[in-house]
Amino acid sequence: MPKRKAQDQLKGLNGTTDIAPVDGPHSQQNAWSTPGPAAFDFRSDVVTTPTPSMLAAIQNCTLLDDVFMEDPTTISLESHMASLTSHEAALFVLSGTMGNQLALRSHLTQPPHSILCDYRAHILVWEAGGAASLSQALVNGVVPKNGVYLTLEDIEKNVVLGDEIHGCPTRVISLENTLGGTIMPLSEVRRISAFAKEHSIKLHLDGARIWEAVVAGAGSLPDYTKEFDSVSLCFSKGLGAPVGSILVGSKEFIKQARWVRKSIGGGLRQPGVVTAAARVAVDETFGTGPNGEGGMLKKSHITAKKIAKMWTEMGGNLDQPTETNMVWFNLEDLNLTEDEFAVIGKKHGLRFLGGRLVVHYQISDEAVERLEGLMKEVIGRKHANENGSANKKRKVGEKAYGT
Ligand SMILES: *Cc1c(COP(=O)(O)O)cnc(C)c1O
């Protein structure tokens, strides 16, 4: 039974015992002891589900109030994250979007002000316009000249400095790493960071998936994070926690972000039940050291590279290089729409969202075997269609990437 196989795999990884589902109205959804459908779900790493050791941590968490800043489980997560990232302070937030938006709101003061970022950045494209509504900011999305990541030259060309009356000055540069699974090299971050300091521009990192860049060997967590005034990091994607992200920065900045968090209803009463799970996600999935030592992400990078290699060797093309846990199948060259690909996936018991495959740590070996069969089928289709014209049909605004 494939499902059993996936369960065993995860159980082995967690090194903990199964917790049997309790009989009752919710027993169908009680999947603490198994990755469940996540084992076959390539749509995003948000599908990873919490583990038995997270449940055990939740059972042992403190249940005190965090608006009063009295909850030891939450305070301990925040101070651990501050020290792991070489920052003074940290704030637990409900989502990556909340972390980014609080950071921008806290760095910015009074318009006219603008934020410079990659044109594909989550803060620009996938956060419901929060930078406009919450911070009244103009967001300047820049197309990187090298097609993969912003360089200092891209920034210099697009930054708005000075107080010329027609301009909307750049007050924050927001970088994203990884972006679509690709890495911004540490050397480039350092160049941009020096530039930002020189011009008194705040530098924010949307590090929802910075863990992946670190595990790929691009630099340690503090090597990256200390270059920024603020960083938001996600617990609920690749690390498998049920809820949450963390925002790190100076004491003064975090105090301001905590205040803004309260104003949008993000002050939490007994968050120990989620911060306990987040701590396990960091320790067990990312690992205990600054390079993800002892963690579980490395294996998914190896699997992603293996999938990319199989795909290209069979004649498929990739839209982006495979540097971490994402593989970007080019579907257009195969005359395949995203919907058609999802339907073929379903037939093989796999789930897709567009041509981007996210190889999270709960993906099973069985899923990769099924994927190989699927690749043969869709690439075989290409040869059958070789004389057909490429299908460019795509609905504007519906390309999957955000989650
Ligand atoms: C997922 C993601 C976020 C925010 O995610 P939430 O769904 O709000 O938790 C922010 N930045 C990037 C790069 C992301 O991939």
UniProtKB/TrEMBL annotation:
Region of interest (Disordered), ranges: 1-35
Modified residues annotated as N6-(pyridoxal phosphate)lysine in this record: 237
UniProt keyword list: Lyase, Pyridoxal phosphate
One Pfam family here: Beta_elim_lyase
SUPFAM superfamilies with a match to the protein in the record: PLP-dependent transferases
Entry cofactors: pyridoxal 5'-phosphate
GO biological process, alphabetically ordered: glycine biosynthetic process; L-threonine catabolic process
Gene Ontology molecular function, alphabetical: L-allo-threonine aldolase activity
Gene3D superfamilies attached to this UniProt entry: Aspartate Aminotransferase, domain 1, Type I PLP-dependent aspartate aminotransferase-like (Major domain)
InterPro entries per UniProt: ArAA_b-elim_lyase/Thr_aldolase, Low_specificity_L-TA-like, PyrdxlP-dep_Trfase, PyrdxlP-dep_Trfase_major, PyrdxlP-dep_Trfase_small
Domain Aromatic amino acid beta-eliminating lyase/threonine aldolase residues, every copy: 41-330
Source organism superkingdom: Eukaryota
A GO term from the CC aspect: cytosol
Family: Belongs to the threonine aldolase family.
UniProt-recorded name of the protein: Aromatic amino acid beta-eliminating lyase/threonine aldolase domain-containing protein
Phylogenetic classification of the source organism: Eukaryota, Fungi, Dikarya, Ascomycota, Pezizomycotina
